[in-house]
Structures are given as structure tokens and as C-alpha cells.
Amino acid sequence: MEKILKTLFFMTILTMILSCGTKNDTGVKETETKAAELTDDSVKEKEVLQVYSGAGLKKPMDEIAQLFEEQENVTIEFNYAGSGQLLTQLETTGKGDVYIVGSVPNYEAAKSKDLVLDYITVAHHTPAIVTLKGNPKEIKTLEDLGKKDVKVILGDEKASAIGKTAQEILKKNKLEIINDNVVSRAATVNEMVVQLTTGKADAMIATIDSVYGNDKLEITEIQPEKNIDQIIAGGIVKNSEKADMADKFIKFVSSEKGKEIFAKYGFKPVTE
């Protein structure tokens, strides 16, 4: 009887030890599983949106992207260039998520090639005459750009929205002769600004926003009846594999907050 009792006692003790071990093992496994899940979440790559954007929109687009990245936990990668260059790149690669350029006609050029979907409008990209501070040559009208002693910078009409629009303005006002005074045709409005501020020319036709806050330059507005306004347009790349997030981004760009940021950099927002 004593041997039986001792055997039962040791079996009970053994059962308790094994039970504790199992509980500890389960706890360890649960801890390891949770740690693995946390590690997976922490190293999970953020969704990346590729955005084609006109070079002249860089300041507001960078600020908008920063806010959107924080809000949606994504990464925005920009390709900034003139609208003509962007179209060539998109047509060549067929890849990307968002396309936003300085004028509706330039957006429609991409849409006509079935590269992008319908567009939304964001802000005005209004052309003006820009001179060095003090306007040394007293250039006050489009006609003054045609004077013999005036050197002019224009955008490349095949590469940028403002280049194409400038030629349309000259044609509208029968002032194509101004092309005889052109000393440079730059691919982007940013290049035009650099060239003018370094004294390469006396004036240029550029957008008001492109020189906003630049104390080295002076703006002379073109009479509305002689001008051709540009409207910034953007939309989703047709082949985007992240269309839902691209749609969220373009809607954020055209939201009240997005327009507020554009206004901060001299772009007049469009109204419904």
C-alpha cells in the first residue's frame, strides 16, 4: 500500500511539472508569434506612388506630398520635367500612377494617346511678362517685346506648357515677329528664371507663380483680352497598379487644402 501511495504521489508531481512546462511553452510561443507579427508590420514596405509633375509645380506639389505621405503612410516619388518631356517618358515606359501638368491642352495630349484617365483642375498658371527688377527696358506690353534692342526668353514649345502657350499668345495677337528677338528657348520655366536673373535677356513670358516672391524680378500682367490663361490639370495614369491610392492623391491635390497650398505659392485656385 505504501508503495502504491508513493507511486501516485510522484505521478501527481510529474503531471504538475509537465502541465507548467506546457503552459510556459505556450506562453513563449504566443510571445514569439506576436513579436514576429510586429516585426512583419514594421518592415513592411510602404506603398509607393510615382507622380509625373510639371517642373513649375514643384514647390506646392512637394508640400502637398509631404502631408499626404503622413496621412496615408505612403511614399510619393516625383518625376519633375517639362510637359513635353513628361509625355515622352510616360509614353516610353507606360508606368506611373499620377500625371499633372501646367495646362489642359498638355494633359489632353496624353489622354489622346490613351495614357491617362479624365482630369481634374487645380489652379491657374497665368502667363505674364517678366523682367528684371526695375524693368530697365521699360517693357510694358507684348508689343514692347518686339523692339529691336530687347532680348527675350521663351519656353520651348515642344517641351513645356508655357512655351506652347506663349506661341499661341503671339499668334493670337499677330506678334510672331517677337520670335526674332528670342535668345533662348528653355525646357522648363525654372531654367527660364535662372537665365533671366543671370542677365541673359531682358524679358520673358512666364507664369506669375513661377516668379512669385522673387525679389530680383518684376511682373507685368498681360491684358486679359490678349492673354491665354493656363489651368493646371491632373489625373490617374491609365496603367497604374495603384489606382485607388492615386485617386486619393489627386483628389487631395484638388481639395481645399491642396488649393490653399497652391495659393501660398502664387497660384490662383480654380473655383467650381
UniProtKB/TrEMBL annotation:
4Fe-4S is among the record's keywords: no
Annotated positions binding molybdate: 83, 189, 212
Any Gene Ontology biological process: molybdate ion transport
Residue ranges annotated for the Solute-binding protein family 3/N-terminal domain, each copy included: 48-269
Transmembrane portions of the chain: none
Gene Ontology molecular functions: metal ion binding; molybdate ion binding
Keywords: Metal-binding, Molybdenum, Signal
Family designation: Belongs to the bacterial solute-binding protein ModA family.
Protein name (record): Molybdenum ABC transporter, periplasmic molybdate-binding protein
Organism the protein comes from: Sebaldella termitidis (strain ATCC 33386 / NCTC 11300)
